[in-house]
Amino acid sequence: MEVFAILEPGAFTTVQDAGRYGYQQFGIPVSGALDMYSYLVANLLVGNGDHDAVLEITFSGPRMEVLSDAIVAVTGADVPVFVNDEPRPSWTSFEVRRGDVLSVRTVRKGVRAYLAVRGGMSVPVIMGSRSTYAAGKIGGLSGRPLGKGDRLRSEPIDGRSRLVSFSEELQPSLPSEITLRALPGPQDDYFDSGLDAFFGSEFTVSSKADRMGYRLEGPVIQLKEGVPRSIISEPSLSGAIQIPPDGQPIILLVEQTVGGYAKIATVVTPDLNVVAQAMPGNRIRFERVDLAEAHRLQADYGSLLDRLKGMFRGGSR
User: Fold this and answer.
1) Which of 74, 79, 116, 264 has the smallest CB count inside 10 Å?
2) Which pLDDT score is estimated for 230?
3) Is residue 55 scored above 50 in pLDDT?
4) Looking at residue 30, what is its pLDDT?
5) Residues 252, 258, 261, 266: is their CA dihedral positive or negative?
6) Is the backbone peptide bond immediately before 29 cis, with ω within 30 degrees of 0?
7) What's the whole-number mean pLDDT along residues 42-50?
8) What are phi and psi of 47, to 5 degrees?
9) Cβ atoms 117, 161 nearer than 8 A
10) Confidence band (pLDDT; 50, 70, 90) for 228?
11) pLDDT given at position 314
């Protein structure tokens, strides 16, 4: 059913789900929500499944006419949400009625907000995903960000979802001074003093920060004498930190498939949600962890997500 008509699209609003896997060898990136924690909670709040599509809103959001009664929730960045110019809380599900105007305005802290509607955003499934890869014009709504006049559909779901809220203590803090836990490698042997400089320095998020990666500014990270200035291009994963010739780190994200620069370290998966909310000008430091600690952090994160799913789907809020 048609649920929204776009009156104003916002700065960069796309349809995203949990990602498009299995096609990187063909140059098709994973895409999907950058802040997977906020994405999952948005879906939980409206009674959706783990892979249902939402709107990922960057910096400023859309203004939409509601075409059908619906239950929605907004999570992620600290952003004002209004229905008919009346404020609504984020991290809480609420009802909208046909004829209402739902507005997601400019973020106050963080970068990306996630708007879920009960039933999920209904767009064609391309290579197993509804996610938008705008650079490749694939997925989402005709492979592009939302535009004025677009109409969005949702899938009908039997039964009624209770309106629920999400504990404030479990919401991300969105700091401007960020510590990211990272495991050295896979090419940490290309660095000696550069590795110490990387883990001992502070960097600033530059204006070149998007869904492909975050370029940082700070001390120049030098490669070890005698090693090649680049490597044979190899598959890249979200969270890998490559060092290009200018020595300024780049945190690779969900729209990069291969890379030919040495990767000094890899951000642990739970902290990628923090990267997704980092604004230009935010300061970042890296905390070194070993493989055992990285596995423990991932296990703890997985346990938290399982607990949240149990809370919402088991009747306890």
Assistant:
1) 79
2) 87
3) yes
4) 96
5) positive
6) no
7) 94
8) 85, 25
9) no
10) confident
11) 66
Dist. CA 184–CA 140, nearest whole Å: 35
Phi, psi of 256 (to 5 degrees): -120, 135
Alpha carbon separation from 238 to 45, 103, 136, 286 (Å, rounded): 26, 31, 18, 16
Please name the amino acid found at residue 24: Q
- The token duo for 157 is 């779901």
Q: Which residues does 96 contact at the CB level (< 8 Å), separation at least 6?
A: 66, 69, 70, 71, 72, 83, 102
Q: What is the pLDDT of residues 65-94, one digit of tens each?
A: 999 999 999 999 999 999 999 999 999 999
Residue 21: beta bridge partners?
none
